[in-house]
Design brief:
- The protein is α/β, with parallel strands linked by helices and about 160 residues long.
- The protein has one domain (about 20-160): Phosphoglycerate mutase-like (Rossmann fold, 3-Layer(aba) Sandwich), CATH 3.40.50.1240.
- It contains 5 helices and 6 strands; from the N terminus they run αβαβαβαβαββ.
- The protein has a 6-stranded mixed beta sheet with strand order 3-2-4-1-5-6, covered by helices on one side.
Length: about 160
């Protein structure tokens, strides 16, 4: 309830009409805190709690599709949101950002979409969706939440928040 500001920001930024191939908004987050540095680490207890907080923050954001990398930590970050919203989570290989974007644009052209990725994939996805900003997510940063509003013929609008 007190975090409806995300919905309000999205609504305000979505007022101009967009071409059919643009999403209303793309919400991107890095997975939450991992248990260890292994290649496919699960979430730590802190990461599990932060994923729960993320779900609570996004429950009224109007998300209609959830995409994640294939890594367990990303899937575990997205699962509480998917469960709360009763949406099937779509896990795709993080190495194939182009395929993920093509699928999102084809299957979710008029939706608000959540993507959970990694510190090295989220900046690339943001750039591919049309934002002009160059981003860097430092290794200890697990609380970034990006709201991207694609715009036909000009750079996407990008908000960087924290949760």
């Amino acid at each position: 309830m007190k975090y409806r500001w995300i919905v309000i920001i999205i609504a305000i930024l979505c007022i101009p009409p967009f071409e059919a191939h643009c999403q209303k908004a793309v919400i991107l987050v890095r997975h939450t805190e991992r248990l260890d540095q292994s290649a496919d680490s699960v979430l730590s207890p802190l990461g599990i709690e932060r994923a729960r907080v993320l779900a609570e923050r996004l429950k009224d954001a109007g998300i209609r599709a959830i995409y994640s990398s294939e890594r367990r930590r990303s899937i575990q970050t997205a699962e509480p949101v998917a469960a709360l919203l009763k949406i099937n989570l779509i896990a795709m290989p993080s190495a194939n950002a182009g395929e993920m974007i093509t699928r999102i644009q084809r299957e979710n052209a008029n939706d608000i979409v959540l993507i959970v990725g990694h510190s090295n994939t989220i900046p690339d996805l943001i750039k591919r969706f049309g934002a002009a900003e160059q981003l860097n997510i430092a290794d200890p940063e697990y609380d970034n939440l990006f709201i991207l509003i694609p715009q036909a013929g000009r750079p996407a609008l990008l908000l960087r928040l924290h949760f």
